[in-house]
Amino acid sequence: MQHSQQIQFTFIDLFSGIGSFHYSFKQLGGECVLACDIDSDANSTYILNYGVLPYENIFDLPMEQIPYSDLLCAGFPCQAFSNIGLKKAWKDARSQVFFPVLDILKNKKIPCILFENVEGLMNLKKGQELRQILTSLKDLNYECFWKVLNCSDYGIPQNRKRLFIVGFHESILQKKSPRPHQFEFPPKTNLKYSLSEILNKNFNQKIARTIRVGGRNSPLNDRHNWDGYTLFPSQTEYRLSIQDCILLQNFKTSFQLCGCQTSQYKQLGNTIPTNLSFVLGEQIIKYLDNIKYFQTKRKKFRKSNPQIQYRAYLRSNHGEFGEYMIKAQLLCFQNQYIRTPFGDIKRLENAPNQLIQNKKLTLFKLYQLSDSELVHCFTKSNILKSKSLSKADVFINDRGVSIKTQNNPAIINHTHRQNFLRVLEYLNLNIQTLDLCISEYHRLRQNNHIGEDIFNSNPLSPFKKYKSYFTPILKYFLFYGSGRSISNHSAESILFVKSQSKGSIGQIFRYSPHNWYWFSNSQQFIDKIWDYLIFSLRDKGLNYEKKNCDSQKILEPWVQQYKSGKTQILKKKGCLHVRLHSSFTMDLENYKFLDQCF
């Protein structure tokens, strides 16, 4: 639905699992403001794919920290109502988590709700348990609609029936009866692929059985078997892989799960197929739009949300902290079997023979640590910055990687002409071209055509037309050395991290993996950044007055005096500084780190 994709809305994701609702709602314009789940591996998966830290226990969720939201979705635990389970319903401890949800609705009056559970809930005790749920919601002034939907009726070949309850708070509904707009569940669609087509195998059935938590590796003729099939014409047995299940639950092939194999199958068995969460999301947004909720009624629900407080350590040490956090997350990748463009991480080092290791660290544990616990974790895991001279910030399977984490990261850092002569001699390049560019830079600045910074996309930029000249220079500073010397250990690729500067409750990461971008070689990175470079001449690192006469003569062609913007004091500027403009992060989808693992 094209119109709904343009509408921005917020949602709370309770019993979030691996985030089927999040996966779909994000595509429809939604922003998750809170998530919660008891499964630590599922929470790591949520962090990895969405950059949101779920709360672990709904009973410990502070009511005052639950933010305003347009929609609350909850796939509350189904084992108590399942046909495969013991059908204990409300006597099962796992079903008790429904009552904190009612407390949230009572206190927050969320405008719209979407609940999911197994088909068995509808008939359990002749429908008594479902009626109890609907009555509880009616008492909280929600008008509800419910229906059983099957995954195979919406394009994906899996026989997976789920009960969905959609509710709207009476305060957003029109008072007229009958109402001019009634909520309608999504109409069925044709099957897009057969089981054989989606898995590229030859099976004797068109639609897969329900992916479940238990029963894996049961005999083919056992009633608990769900993952075993017979291939034709070979008549050989075939078991669904993790990747097969990901496809049958309609996640993209690059979607990754954290944890051991057993845990990954469990996460997939508990989730909702995203084709169902997507079509339901479409219908809900369409309905809210039809009743003019977004245009008028939403305003009275809107309140200021709790604002997260960034850690003091993070605020004062952005670049260094970011590098440590990225290394810690790479360590979690190694522990939790997460694939990378380097394959499975077998060896992680600060520098050659400086192992980073901590076998108990997971993504969910990492983001729950306090300031002091983080520092202890970095120290214990040998994550703190290496003392060796290296352009590579981390070594993954013996391959050096340079990490760029900050907004506007420096590529060439305050380097004067004397140091540049050493670099150009190493690269076998002349200084005249660079002198010419800087002379033109000074002319433009003195005539007030530019300020201290000049964006390389600016038609006036004297550097832009010399890309072939600057390419080996940029490669050198990115991968091999500085103005003072060549590094002991070079880098061969770039891990660029888009820094997330703000977020709502739950989104506390500036350096979460879904914001990582990987460039496998220097030329690829330089081609991408060229138009986003900012060139400037600065005073930092120059120390002109402290140099001897010979050094001053070498520096002099680049040195000019300019008034400081703050103090109006004249300062000699003569160090070339090149950094990336923040708009560089706008067009990087094809370079997603985790998408390049396949």
From TrEMBL:
SUPFAM superfamilies: S-adenosyl-L-methionine-dependent methyltransferases (SSF53335). Its EC number is 2.1.1.37. The active site is at C78. One of its GO terms (molecular function) is DNA (cytosine-5-)-methyltransferase activity. It comes from Caulerpa manorensis. InterPro entries: C5-MTase, C5_DNA_meth_AS, C5_MeTfrase, SAM-dependent_MTases_sf. Keywords: Chloroplast, Methyltransferase, Plastid, S-adenosyl-L-methionine, Transferase. Pfam families: DNA_methylase (PF00145). It catalyses: a 2'-deoxycytidine in DNA + S-adenosyl-L-methionine = a 5-methyl-2'-deoxycytidine in DNA + S-adenosyl-L-homocysteine + H(+). GO terms for biological process: methylation. This is Cytosine-specific methyltransferase. Belongs to the class I-like SAM-binding methyltransferase superfamily. C5-methyltransferase family. It is an enzyme of class 2 (transferase). PROSITE patterns: C5_MTASE_1, SAM_MT_C5.
